[in-house]
């Protein structure tokens, strides 16, 4: 019998993966791949809540798989799949739509944010997105859902749904816990440290992508905003110096050093020097990931074999849960 606890998470292929996706999510997944039974997917169903170019979506979905593997998710030990290949997600998503309240969905910060940014396309999917995300999670009965800070509210909503559903039908779903990293849970844009570094940011000048070339990474760090005071001192004060705090958390995420260690390492050295070191640490952390991703992206047949096997394995678990749910709510067995 498999005693391992279960972990599950996903990323929308709505843009190229960033340093935020890595430090906030994938790094955390890869470090625990041995210890847990893990399911990771490319959330393509979620991606279309915002208009996508079909060819780009298709390319990014497969490239994202290559990047998961390059970041250390071994497909032999983790179940890696494409969300739309396991139709149970959409099916349970519908059921859970009927167990989430209009009021609670209206309170979701991401919905409010995205509605502001996509005023001409505030579609129903954008609104009910957390129900699909709850379905993604609950199908696999995970213990932990490793995500960055911005997704915590959605995992909390999934927990409310579990409580409501189990309250009516008995113990159907396991209660999942969000699992947020201590550093890197909210990597900010290098040019605008008050906004999250986002893969769907069109301009992208303050966004570091996993596939950026070393010289581009160095240039982006060189231009990074520090703070407007004249102190020129590396000190962790997120309220006063959000730009510096962001760079410190990135450096900490890359090197494992604490904020106190970073402060003493850079005591008496200016921001210019500090930014160069952070850039170099990021370049070195991402170099093997980029190289391995490029190698894997060229091997289409291998990637296809991984996502096919992943979908098959994921489907077995997912349909077991879906059958139970259908029975509980009163659907006639097929
Ligand atoms: P998404 O695609 O926006 O982001 C993927 C993961 O990366 C984290 N993240 C960040 N962490 C720190 N700093 C940042 N700047 C940063 N940007 C992104 C996110 O918190 C997330 O963990 N709805 C989800 C995808 C999803 C999902 C799921 C996640 C769909 N179904 C089921 C967990 C379980 C999303 O849009 O993440």
Structural description of this entry:
- With 334 residues, the chain is mainly α.
- The protein has two domains: 5-180 and 299-329, Rossmann fold (3-Layer(aba) Sandwich), CATH 3.40.50.620; 214-295, Tyrosyl-Transfer RNA Synthetase, CATH 1.10.240.
- Helix content is 53%, strand content 7%.
- It contains 13 helices and five strands.
- It has helices at 19-30, 44-47, 54-70, 88-97, 102-106, 109-117, 124-138, 152-169, 214-222, 242-255, 259-265, 271-297, 300-329; strands spanning 6-11, 37-42, 78-82, 144-146, 177-179.
- α4 (88-97) crosses α7, α4 (88-97) packs parallel to α13 and α7 (124-138) crosses α8.
- The longest helix is centred in the last third of the chain and has 30 residues, at 300-329.
- The protein is globular.
- The chain starts with 5 loop residues before the first strand and ends in a 5-residue tail after the last helix.
- The model has no long low-confidence stretch (mean pLDDT 95).
- Tryptophanyl-5'AMP binds at residues 9-12, 20-21, 23-25, 43, 46, 133, 136-137, 145, 147-148, 150-151, 154, 184-187, 196-197.
């Amino acid at each position: 019998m498999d005693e391992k606890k279960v972990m599950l998470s996903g990323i929308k292929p709505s843009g190229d993966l960033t340093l935020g996706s890595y430090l906030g999510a994938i790094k955390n997944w890869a470090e625990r791949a041995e210890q847990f039974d893990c399911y990771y997917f490319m959330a393509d169903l979620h991606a279309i809540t915002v208009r996508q170019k079909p060819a780009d979506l298709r390319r990014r979905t497969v490239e994202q798989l290559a990047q998961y593997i390059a970041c250390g998710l071994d497909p032999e030990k983790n179940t890696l799949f494409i969300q739309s290949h396991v139709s149970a997600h959409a099916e349970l998503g519908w059921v859970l739509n009927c167990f989430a309240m209009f009021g609670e969905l209206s309170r979701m910060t991401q919905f409010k944010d995205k509605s502001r940014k996509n005023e001409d396309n505030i579609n129903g999917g954008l609104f009910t997105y957390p129900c699909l995300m709850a379905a993604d999670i609950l199908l696999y009965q995970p213990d932990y859902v490793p995500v960055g800070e911005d997704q915590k509210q959605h995992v909390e909503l999934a927990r409310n749904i579990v409580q409501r559903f189990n309250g009516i039908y008995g113990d159907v779903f396991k209660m999942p816990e969000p699992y947020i990293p201590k550093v890197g849970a909210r990597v900010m844009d290098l040019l605008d440290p008050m906004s999250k570094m986002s893969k769907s940011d069109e301009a992208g000048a303050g966004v570091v992508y996993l596939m950026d070339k070393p010289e581009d990474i160095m240039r982006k760090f060189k231009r990074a905003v520090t703070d407007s005071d004249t102190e020129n001192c590396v000190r962790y004060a997120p309220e006063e110096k959000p730009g510096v705090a962001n760079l410190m958390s990135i450096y900490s995420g890359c090197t494992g050093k604490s904020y106190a260690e970073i402060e003493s390492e850079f005591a008496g050295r200016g921001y210019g020097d500090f930014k160069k070191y952070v850039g170099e640490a990021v370049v070195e952390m991402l170099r093997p990931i980029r190289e391995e991703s490029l190698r894997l992206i060229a091997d289409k047949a291998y990637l296809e074999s991984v996502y096919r096997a992943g979908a098959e394995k994921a489907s077995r678990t997912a349909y077991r849960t879906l059958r139970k749910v259908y029975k509980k709510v009163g659907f006639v067995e097929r």
